[in-house]
């Protein structure tokens, strides 16, 4: 570990914020980058950012990853040894409405990060992928070695493209890269477009919650603190040349709880925490959705000692407690 600054992109976002706070808590120096866009209420992003700004070792740059000149200058100035790249245009359904936003952030933006890393001596790039790359796969649990060439949304396609782009840079320039396929991350300071947040908001307001595929869905809900501990362990674990990755220093891991939860069970936990019964609107399957996600995390456990340790009951309680406190309800 060095005192050289770590770049965390998406630092005002849900996962990026938690990871930046974890790294700062370990005494590391962090440069956070975010464009504070309006995909959801920027007030939540600014509230996260305000907490990070209290840390002496944190500095913030407001910039768009698609701005090639600005990103190149930032990398040239700091010559980051480690980069944690979590900025992206998120959301499966939004990618159907606003596809160009995904090309700008997830493709052009990621290319600018890769160029910054390879031109400025980056020792390790850790980047966010998604369980959505598994697409129409039906074999469970999802394993990293499974084929991922049938995406069912543009968002998923851009995340698969990120993996391929990172692999090519790793091969061409010996850039060490580690991709993390996240499985339904939730917890305090979560995104308002995610199921847990939407459900709590609707239940407290007395509005119906929308349950697609008539609620018959299963998700590998992963508590955000488990994610931050994984990133903390991996950032200093620079991958060696891997024969399975064309002898490039490239790795991909699933980051999940390794335990799918019935969506109706999660709704029941929320009802218990909130002391209210949800009004349920049962709807057909949405375009871009998958029925079930389930992470095989054996290689992650083997390489890092990571084991998911947050039961869904505890995670739901922590999220609801944060929500009530933040929104004063």
Could you characterize the architecture of this molecule?
The structure is a single chain. The protein is α/β, with parallel strands linked by helices. It has eleven helices and 13 strands. The chain has helices at 14-25, 42-53, 68-78, 94-97, 99-119, 154-173, 195-205, 224-234, 263-274, 298-304, 312-327; strands at residues 6-9, 30-34, 58-62, 82-85, 124-130, 177-182, 185-186, 208-211, 218-219, 222-223, 250-255, 261-262, 279-282. The strands form four sheets. Strands 3-2-1-4-5-6-11 form a seven-stranded parallel β-sheet, with helices on both faces. A two-stranded parallel ribbon has the order 7-10. Strands 8-13 form a two-stranded parallel ribbon. α6 (154-173) links the parallel β5 (124-130) and β6. α1 runs parallel beside α2, α1 (14-25) crosses α8 (224-234) and α3 (68-78) runs parallel beside α5 (99-119). The protein is globular. The mean pLDDT is 92.
Based on Cα principal axes, name the global outline.
Answer: globular
Task: Report the portion of residues in β strands.
Answer: 15-25%
Distance N terminus to C terminus?
A: 42 Å
Rg measurement, Å: 19 Å
| Poorly predicted sequence stretches spanning 5 or more consecutive residues | none
Structural class: alpha/beta
Kindly state the percentage of residues in helix.
Answer: 40-55%
Q: What's the assembly state of these chains?
A: single chain
| Mean pLDDT across residues | 92
């Amino acid at each position: 570990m060095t005192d050289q600054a770590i770049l965390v992109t998406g630092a005002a976002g849900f996962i990026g914020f938690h990871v930046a706070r974890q790294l700062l808590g370990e005494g590391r120096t962090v440069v956070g980058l975010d464009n504070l866009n309006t995909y959801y209420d920027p007030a939540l992003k600014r509230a996260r950012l305000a907490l990070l700004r209290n840390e002496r070792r944190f500095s913030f740059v407001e910039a768009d990853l698609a701005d090639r000149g600005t990103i190149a200058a930032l990398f040239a100035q700091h010559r980051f040894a480690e980069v944690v790249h979590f900025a992206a245009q998120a959301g499966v359904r939004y990618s159907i409405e606003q596809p160009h936003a995904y090309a700008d952030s997830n493709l052009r933006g990621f290319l600018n990060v890769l160029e910054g890393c390879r031109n400025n001596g980056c020792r390790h790039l850790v980047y966010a992928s998604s369980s959505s790359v598994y697409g129409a796969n039906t074999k469970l649990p999802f394993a990293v070695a499974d084929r991922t060439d049938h995406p069912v949304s543009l968002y998923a396609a851009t995340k698969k493209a990120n993996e391929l782009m990172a692999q090519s840079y790793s091969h061409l320039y010996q850039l060490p890269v580690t991709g993390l396929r996240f499985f339904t991350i939730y917890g305090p300071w979560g995104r308002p477009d995610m199921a847990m947040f939407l459900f709590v908001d609707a239940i407290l307001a007395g509005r119906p919650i929308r349950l697609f595929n008539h609620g018959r869905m299963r998700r590998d809900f992963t508590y955000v603190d488990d994610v931050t501990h994984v990133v903390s362990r991996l950032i200093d674990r620079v991958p060696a040349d891997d024969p399975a990755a064309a002898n490039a220093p490239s790795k991909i891991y699933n980051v999940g709880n390794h335990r799918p939860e019935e969506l109706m069970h999660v709704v029941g936990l929320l009802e218990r925490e909130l002391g209210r019964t949800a009004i349920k609107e049962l709807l057909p399957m949405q375009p871009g959705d998958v029925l079930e996600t389930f992470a095989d995390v054996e290689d992650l456990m083997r390489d890092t000692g990571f084991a998911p340790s947050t039961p869904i009951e505890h995670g739901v309680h922590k999220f609801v407690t944060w929500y009530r406190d933040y929104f004063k309800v």
